[in-house]
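Quick one: structure for this chain?
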Amino acid sequence: MKVGFIGLGIMGQPMSQRLLQAGFHLTVYNRTAKKAEKVLTSGAKWVDSPAVVAAASDIVIMMLPDTPEVEAVLFGKNGVSAGLSAGKIVVDMSTISPEATVQFAARLREQNCEMLDAPVSGGENGAMAGTLTIMVGGDEKTFQKCLPLFQAMGKNIAHLGANGNGQRTKLVNQMICALHILAMSEGLHLAEALELNSEKVLQVVSSGAAGSWMLNHLAPRILQNDFTPGFMIKLQQKDLRLANELIKTLGENFPGTALTYSLFTKAAESGLGEQGTQGLIKLFRNQYNQFDGKSFAPRKPT
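Got it. Here's what it folds into:
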C-alpha cells in the first residue's frame, strides 16, 4: 500500500514516523520543506506538490491546521484532487469544520474517490507513542481499508458513521478538554495564590475525584514553567471556534464552551498562541484576575 502524507508539523511528523516504522512506503509534502528532514532521513520520499503526492499514493493523509488550508491543499493549484484517479482515498486527520468536510467528501466522490475525516486526540506524546485516539467519519468499507494505517498511529480507533461525524466527535472532545484545562489552570493558580506547596497539592488532587489527563500530563509542566507546545493555544482556540459555529446551528446554550472560547481567544490575543495549552494559566498568573463573561479586568497592584 502506497501512502502519501501532507503536513509535517508537531503532530504530522511523529504520525508519519509511525507509518514508516510500520513498514508503509511514504511519499510526503510540506509547505516548509525543512520540516520534512526527519521523515526523509527515515526513508520517506519527498515530492514538490500535493498533486504529485496523490498521483504516487493509494491513500493520501493530511494533517493541517484549519479548514482553509485543507481546502487549498485539496482543490487549489497543484492540489490533491489534481493527482487523484478513481478508487483512491483521502484521509483528513486535521480538525476542521464538519460541514466543510461533508462538502469536500462530496466533491471527491465526483472523482470516484472516497474521503474519511479522522481527527485525533492525544497530543504530540500520543503521536510519538502511536497511542492516539482516532475518530473516523465516512464509508465503512473505506474505513476498513484504512484501518491498518490507523492502527499504526493509534490505539483507540472508532468509526462513527457518515462523513463529518469524526469532526463532530472531535469537537465534543475539544469542548471537554478546554474545560479541563480551565479547571486545572484555575485550581493551580488558587494553590499558588494561597501559597500552598503546588507539587503536593497536585499529587493529592490528581489522585482523587479531580484527577484528569490534563492534571497528569500538563500540570507538571506548569509547575516546571514549561510551556512548549504539545498542542498550541491558537489551535485549541480554533477548535473552540469550530465548536461554537456548530453549536449555533443547534440553537442551544453551551455556556462552558462560550467561556473557554473567550479565554483561549484572549490568550491568543495576548501573545500566547504559540505556547502549549497549559499556558492558559498565564492569564491568571500575570495579567488578569476577573472574568465577567464579557471582558477581563487587569489585576490591581498589591
